[in-house]
Amino acid sequence: MAQKKKVTATVVSQKEIAEQIYDLWLETDLAKDAKPGQFVAVYPQDASTLLPRPISICEADKEKGRLRLVYRIAGKGTKEFSSYQSGDKVSVLGVLGNGFPLEKAEGKKVFLMGGGIGIPPMLQLAKELNAQKQIVVGYRNQDLFLREDLSRNGEVYVATEDGSVGSKGNVMDAIFENDLQADVIMACGPMPMLRAIKKYAEENGIEAYISLEERMACGVGACLGCVCKTKEVDHHSHVNNARICTDGPVFEAKEVDI
Amino acid sequence: MNTKVTIAGVTFKNPVMTASGTFGSGMEYGEFVDLNKLGAVVAKGVANVPWPGNQTPRVAEVYGGMLNAIGLQNPGIDVFAKRDIPFLKKYDTKIIVNVCGKTVEDYLEVVERLGDEPVDMLEINVSCPNVKEGAIAFGQKADCLYDITSQIKKKAKQPIIMKLSPNVTDITEMAKAAEAAGADALSMINTLTGMKIDINRRKFVLANKTGGMSGPAIKPVAVRMVYQAAQAVKIPIIGMGGIATADDAIEFLLAGATAVAVGAMNFVNPYATVEVVEGIEAYMKKYGVEDINELIGAVEA
């Protein structure tokens, strides 16, 4: 695994692609080590907001050395990020976490499932995964951010909460309505969605890998802030807790108690 | 130029340490900094048996700082002795183990277990605000602190540092009780008990409701308490609380601390510890300070 480091990245471009959702391209050599499902931690400049903000990697252009981060404004830190313009400098810690295990899905029939702000990491995953890809994404409304990019990398199925596009409901509704099947699931999204996927995967004997989130401080496995309950005693903690930032964020669904 | 300081017969190459709980056992930050450059690594609190810690969310940001309520999750002394101590032994730095417990017996068990291990000092955590029993109960009443300190001192083979809580009315009373009971040194301050409420959800942000506040926002409180304690006792003090830079560290030394520890700011700047070491040397050069010990308690009225 590539060494983690804190670097100064340069903003290449930024635009709002849906309400409160921003699409930020950064120039940084962290891009060359990035794997689908990993994340970076971005530091606000305002010293009153000290902690780095964990943000998933949406796309990594290894040749140009660029990372694409698609994030939602969730508070003061991300609000500050949304004001960044091309040429601005930003401190980034990365690359963090373990990413999706591509080898588990290679050549198989796979669901790539993203819900809301859990959709962005599905893009780099779709780009790198060599498999029969069914990309199932859930949005609030017709603001279908990243759908175009995703559709260039697999078959896309949409669900919207308000029913304005695709299946009305969530990603599970889209699967049932389109009568889709898969051997492996890779997913990122809100906890209720991940719980539903875990249950579906267990009932149908499907391997599922889910990306979790939790409030983090250090991002590197030292503070033990972002733990999740695990079925087995974790190798590092020796209790039933794994560190989402370091042992995750991607876990096999059956290994975690969510 | 001398940057060495000595606490209870243990000499540190420089006064910069890590604050317990913010640096694991050094493995995670060893990727960012050369642990050989640090005066000491103070490891995360360890108990006699594994502790699962609190529910999440365990951390929250506050203005200029953070709250944590990890609840002293730790793998227990057996794993610690087998894995973490040998890891730290590979480096040319002093090893300080932070000891926690729910009962006096728990503390004694860990202290005795560490007696034959190659660790330089023990830091006794009687001030964690995030566990329901033990811990802080021993650190907020002078007679309880006196009692546990003297019991540990009887069993400990290494010098002991009592880590004091700032959540008390009079820090000097606590410092004096620890000293009178035989403590070799004090470390201070542990975190200040705080709370954050999410007004949109009308819920506590932390699962534990309260958490310990750390970060630059608490530094003035920490400097004041170190100064007061240094005036009240003769034993050395390891000062901490919001140290981000060498300037912050020097403030603590001038207030009377013999050594300093970098805590929450490791999360903000993973290179902070080594930057503090280098910055202290630069300060000494700038002001022609030959020996760092000249700075300890050198604040003038």
Describe the protein:
The complex is a heterodimer of chains A (258) and B (301). Chain A has 258 residues and is of the alpha/beta class. Chain A has two domains: 5-96, Elongation Factor Tu (Ef-tu), domain 3; 102-257, Nucleotide-binding domain of ferredoxin-NADP reductase (FNR) module (Rossmann fold, 3-Layer(aba) Sandwich), CATH 3.40.50.80. In chain A, 16% of the residues lie in helices and 36% in strands. Chain A is built from five helices and 17 strands. Chain A has helices at residues 76-81, 121-128, 147-151, 171-177, 191-204; strands at 5-18, 21-27, 39-42, 53-56, 59-61, 66-72, 89-96, 109-115, 132-139, 155-160, 167-168, 184-188, 207-211, 227-230, 241-243, 250-252, 256-257. In chain A, helix 2 links the parallel strand 8 and strand 9. The longest helix of chain A has 14 residues, at 191-204. Chain A is globular. The mean pLDDT of chain A is 96. With 301 residues, chain B is an alpha/beta fold. Chain B has one domain (5-295): TIM Barrel, CATH 3.20.20.70. Chain B is 32% helix and 20% strand. Chain B contains nine helices and 16 strands. Chain B has helices at 77-89, 104-114, 136-139, 142-155, 171-180, 219-232, 246-255, 265-268, 272-286; strands spanning 5-7, 10-12, 16-18, 40-42, 59-62, 65-68, 94-99, 121-125, 160-163, 185-188, 192-195, 197-198, 203-204, 210-214, 237-240, 259-262. In chain B, the strands form four sheets. Chain B has an eight-stranded parallel β-sheet. Chain B has a four-stranded antiparallel β-sheet with strand order 5-6-14-11, with no helix packed on it. In chain B, strands 1-2 form a two-stranded antiparallel ribbon. The model of chain B has no long low-confidence stretch (mean pLDDT 96). Classes of the chains: A alpha/beta (258), B alpha/beta (301). At the A-B interface, loops of A face strand 5, strand 6 and helix 8 of B.
